[in-house]
From TrEMBL:
It comes from the Eukaryota. This is Myb-like domain-containing protein. Residues 244-296 form the Myb-like domain. It comes from Coemansia javaensis. InterPro entries: Homeodomain-like_sf (IPR009057), SANT/Myb (IPR001005).
Amino acid sequence: RESGLDIDWVAVSWAVGLSELDCLELCRFSEGKARWTYDPDTFSQEMADRMEAFIAEHYPPPAAPNFNAVSNYMWLDINDCIRMAQLLRGEFEWTDEAKDKVARMWEQGISHKEIARQLSPNVTADSIAQCMYRMRRPQQYTSLTLEEKQRVRGIVDENSGKVSFCEVVELVRQEFACPKRRTPALKCAKGYCSSIPLYRARVEGEDKDQIAKDILSGATTATEAARRLDVPPVLVTAMVEKFQTRMCSSVWTDKEMEHLVEYVRAHTRPYSWKSFSALLGTKSQRQCRLKFDAMRRSGAIPDMPEN
């Protein structure tokens, strides 16, 4: 059909003896589907609301949306639906292409607010400012010395449990005045904190599944949840990944592996496992990444160079 919105899915359902949702999920016909790329001047909030309402009705968290069904319901390109859903959730991938676009617009004198509007409905001007700061002030970082690592561990050991995790990080920041040393020191501190029993116990004492569901539904973010629990954010993101993995079968079908091979051949590294996971709909990001590594080691997938 010229427009998928004209398809009578009720009639299709009656004709084949399946539910409307089953028909939407199973239909693989995609000829004539329109593209849906974000353009601030033509962006339709009504279309966005329609897609989000469909996902909320048929795939409430923790269920992963079946984007083949979403694509058929909207009659729009499946990859565009995935990207738009991510943008609407406030997820934006800072690819090299996106950074180059930001740099070009900034050189033209366009404001941070307008650049943000050009990229996504949910990117903020502060995010653009941070992106420009990182690009304009590149730093060459080296590994910490043993003495520096001991200083970091000393600060963490002395203050963990006495002050909040954010305050511990701030104390490390103050200890290392040189930016080139501060960044690896902060990374070291956050990594060390994530292994401390005190912080892990705070996570274990919570309803981890409910927290993961809240994050996946957009009710909160991993950063907000980590701040509430007073733990390193990496512990919360790991919790969400584990939850998603448990909800998915650990067995890979031949069809799923075919999709993985096709995705790798069609894209360049670094791969977006978040996008592929959403496209596949049956495996978590972690499962996709681990399966790719296993297939690459076995020679089933060639080791492609990074772009």
